Amino acid sequence: MLDNVVIGALSCCTRVKDARERADAILNNVGLGPKRNLTSAMLTLPDRKMLELARALATRPKLLLLDEVLGGLRPTECDRLMALLRDVTEREGISLVLIEHVMRAVMTLAQTVIVLHHGAIIAQGTPANIVREQAVLDCYLGEPFSV
Q1: Quick one: what percent of the chain has pLDDT higher than 70?
Q2: Which residues on neighbouring strands pair with residue 114, listed in sequence order?
Q3: Integer CA distances (angstroms), 89 to 60, 93, 141, 143, in order
Q4: Is the pLDDT assigned to residue 30 strictly greater than 90?
Q5: What average pLDDT does this structure show over 71-93?
Q6: Could you tell me the pLDDT band of residue 145, with boundaries at 50, 70 and 90?
Q7: What is the pLDDT confidence band of residue 107, given thresholds at 50, 70 and 90?
Q8: Mean pLDDT, to the nearest integer, of 15-24?
Q9: What DSSP assignment string belongs to the chain?
Q10: Taking the CB of residue 98, how many other CB atoms lie within 10 A of it?
């Protein structure tokens, strides 16, 4: 698993030793440090999601695109990943583009929300405003969502 993250780190580190150190630090940061020597096939779904995030973070991105990153996770696992994303984006200054159907995550992580329906924008604004938009209620929420 460590080598998976080293590959990403090599995009911004000139020496393999530096890439290994960066990968190791990132695995510790996402909670996978004790599992660094396992193969990715041995990981649980939540750990595989963390590995995917670690590989992406290893490249030192300015923008991170996450597509349904919380899919298949339990609420406690979602909370852990959301806290990690909040921490990493604030500490590293990374912007997120989040494609997500878990509304709790959208409300927690997003500063601006753009809602699409059949490829067309039906609403755009802050999370607090989006959940009151009639088009969003009609298409997705059904009833007001408390923020």
Answers
A1: 97
A2: 124
A3: 11, 5, 28, 31
A4: yes
A5: 92
A6: low
A7: confident
A8: 96
A9: -HHHHHHHHTTT-SSHHHHHHHHHHHHHHTT-GGGTTS-GGGS-HHHHHHHHHHHHHTT--SEEEEESTTTT--HHHHHHHHHHHHHHHHHHT-EEEEE---HHHHHHH-SSEEEEETTEEEEEE-HHHHTT-HHHIIIIISSPPP-
A10: 18
**The dihedral of CA 129, 133, 139, 143: what is its sign?**
positive
pLDDT band at 142 (very low <50, low <70, confident <90, very high): confident
| Crossing angle between the packed helical segments 2-9 and 45-57, to the nearest 10 degrees | 20
Q: Are 16 and 10 in contact (CB under 8 A)?
A: yes
- The label of the residue with tokens 């929420």 reads 141
**Phi–psi pair at 113, nearest 5 degrees:** -120, 135
How long is the chain?
147
Q: What tokens appear for 111 in the block?
A: 């500063």
Q: What pLDDT is stored for residue 140 in this prediction?
A: 81
CB–CB of 74/45 below 8 Å? no
CB 43 within 8 A of CB 90: no
Q: Where are the domains of the chain?
A: 1-60
